């Protein structure tokens, strides 16, 4: 009988893609994917450890799986960043787990399934990247890793531990993968890396801007995005590539983390408030219609009211189209632990609420500003909530639900007149 598997994924785009790779390689081995854990012979938890909360979820999840395992034949694997960070300790804490596999070993699932290794948390030189096996959930979009790991050592961040040192993929490998994805109908490409714009081809030395241009020039790439850029790695070549290629999204996720230069220094972000704002201005000058999104951390050790006010004023100044904000969460082994205690939890919570309130207002104005305009929308398929409508995204990554001929194929680009701004999304009607 064919074996079945179930994957649950937490965390970032890199983890999503790792799950797509795990799923693809299991399917190649004859496994069938199922949607409920109750039907599965193999359960993979692809975990995240960026904040403490994400980590706690994994152990409560494992507690529940223990019962399931006592009732039937079941293999349980912990993958992802909690696996990397805790390693062997997971087997002590939850001995019913069959194997622990870090992000460096996604391409080596065979050795692990064969029972050769129970704990695989190294970063092998050969990462075995079989892009033809990636099980992509979308018929129109493909995510493509261009660089793994991170060499920045932001003092709050666990990623250098969980994802290792930076390794860029060769330029031509990336282009080959993008071409294969486009041939399968995925006309929207998203290039991924923890610090995506630190990309440098290990063979030719070509930089991120060069790669962006080359990918944008592949036939039928309708839209090109990338995640996540580090502000200190933004350079002229990247900006020029964006400016010169219309199919590169006019949208840039540029995490600022804090608006206070003092806190940025303690975080080791390698830029000041002024430098960040200059970078934004430089990009806006080259590409006036660009939109930004960001990540913010509140309650970092030593953050005073004044530091926090600077974060609010920076958000108001940049007017981000969307943003993510988090309370600082101390992570094991990170240098920030030595900087001092986090801000009192009640104060941090209040700051978080103020960030969300401010951004809610900005976002409202932002969404309202589209009313009456015609925006290019890349069609993804029928709308989830209303089957008589289609859904897609604008260049700025905003979801639009709209009426159009039902025969419009996914992957087409349409002009949509926006007539309504909803909570997070827009509504409209396709125009001829
Ligand atoms: N505490 C809170 N937020 C964090 N992030 C990363 N590490 C931490 C931490 N220790 C946030 C940053 C990053 C995003 C992916 O997660 O804002 O950009």
Characterization of the model:
- It is built from 13 helices and 19 strands.
- It is 34% helix and 22% strand.
- The protein has 4 domains: 4-120, Methylthiotransferase, N-terminal domain (Rossmann fold, 3-Layer(aba) Sandwich); 136-249, Transcription Regulator spoIIAA; 254-369, Transcription Regulator spoIIAA (2-Layer Sandwich); 374-431, Beta Barrel (OB fold (Dihydrolipoamide Acetyltransferase, E2P)), CATH 2.40.50.
- It is globular, with a radius of gyration of 22 Å.
- The strands form 5 sheets. The protein has a 6-stranded parallel β-sheet, sandwiched between helices.
- The chain has helices at 13-28, 52-71, 80-86, 88-93, 109-113, 159-163, 171-183, 208-216, 236-244, 261-267, 273-286, 305-318, 345-368; strands spanning 4-9, 32-33, 42-47, 75-79, 99-101, 119-120, 141-145, 147-148, 167-168, 188-192, 223-227, 251-253, 291-298, 322-327, 374-382, 390-394, 399-403, 413-421, 426-431.
- The model has no long low-confidence stretch (mean pLDDT 95).
- The chain has 432 residues and is an alpha/beta fold.
- 5'-deoxyadenosine (5AD) binds at residues 50-51, 156-157, 255, 257, 295, 297, 326, 328-329, 331.
- 5'-deoxyadenosine is lined by residues 50-51, 156-157, 255, 257, 295, 297, 326, 328-329, 331.
In short:
With 432 residues, the protein is an alpha/beta fold. The chain contains 13 helices and 19 strands. The longest helix has 24 residues, at 345-368.
Strand arrangement within the widest β-sheet reads 2-1-3-4-5-6
Radius of gyration: 22 Å
Determine the fraction of residues in helical runs and give it as a percent range. Answer: 25-40%
Low-confidence stretches: none
Bound molecules: 5'-deoxyadenosine
Largest sheet: 6 strands, parallel
Give the overall shape.
globular
| Number of beta strands | 19
By CATH's scheme, which homologous superfamily of the largest domain applies? Methylthiotransferase, N-terminal domain
Content-based structural category: alpha/beta
The average pLDDT value, as a whole number, equals 95
Total domain modules: 4
CATH architecture of the largest domain: 3-Layer(aba) Sandwich
SS element count, helices: 13
Strand content: 15-25%
Distance between the termini: 52 Å
CATH top level of the largest domain is: Alpha Beta
What is the third-level CATH name, the topology of the largest domain?
Rossmann fold
């Amino acid at each position: 009988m064919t074996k079945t598997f179930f994957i649950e994924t937490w965390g970032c785009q890199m983890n999503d893609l790792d799950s797509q790779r795990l799923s693809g390689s299991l399917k190649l081995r004859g496994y069938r994917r199922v949607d409920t854990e109750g039907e599965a012979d193999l359960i993979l938890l692809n975990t995240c450890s960026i904040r403490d909360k994400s980590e706690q979820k994994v152990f409560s999840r494992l507690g529940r799986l223990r019962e399931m395992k006592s009732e039937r034949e079941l293999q349980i694997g912990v993958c992802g960043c909690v696996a990397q960070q805790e390693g062997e300790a997971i087997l002590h804490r939850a001995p019913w787990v069959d194997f622990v596999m870090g992000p460096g070993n996604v391409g080596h699932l065979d050795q692990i399934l064969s029972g050769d290794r129970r704990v695989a948390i190294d970063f092998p030189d050969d990462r075995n990247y079989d892009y033809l096996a990636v099980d992509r959930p979308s018929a129109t979009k493909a995510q493509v890793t261009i660089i793994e790991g991170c060499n920045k050592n932001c003092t709050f961040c666990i990623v250098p531990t969980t994802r290792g040192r930076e390794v860029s993929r060769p330029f031509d490998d990336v282009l080959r993968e993008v071409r294969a994805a486009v041939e399968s109908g995925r006309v929207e490409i998203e290039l991924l890396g923890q610090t995506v714009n630190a990309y440098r081809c290990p063979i030719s030395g070509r930089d991120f801007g060069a790669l962006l241009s080359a990918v944008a020039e592949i036939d039928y790439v309708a839209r090109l995005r990338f995640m996540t850029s580090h502000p200190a790695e933004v350079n002229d070549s990247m900006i020029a590539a964006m400016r010169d290629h219309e199919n590169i999204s006019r949208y840039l996720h540029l995490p600022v983390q804090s608006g206070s230069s003092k806190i940025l220094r303690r975080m080791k972000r390698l830029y000041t408030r002024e430098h960040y704002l200059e970078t934004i201005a430089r990009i806006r000058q080259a590409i006036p219609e660009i939109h930004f999104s960001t990540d913010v951390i509140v309650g970092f050790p030593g953050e005073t009211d004044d530091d926090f006010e600077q974060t609010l004023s920076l958000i108001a100044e940049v007017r981000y189209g969307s943003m993510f904000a988090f309370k600082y969460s101390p992570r094991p082994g990170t240098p920030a632990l030595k900087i001092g205690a986090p801000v009192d939890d009640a104060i941090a919570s209040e700051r978080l609420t103020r960030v969300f309130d401010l951004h809610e207002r900005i976002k409202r104005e932002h969404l309202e500003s589209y009313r009456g305009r015609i925006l290019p929308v890349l069609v993804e398929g029928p709308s989830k909530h209303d089957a008589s409508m289609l859904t897609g995204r604008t260049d700025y990554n905003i979801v639009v639900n709209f009426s159009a001929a039902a025969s419009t194929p996914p992957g087409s680009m349409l002009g949509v007149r926006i007539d309504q701004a909803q909570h997070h999304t827009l509504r409209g009607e396709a125009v001829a």
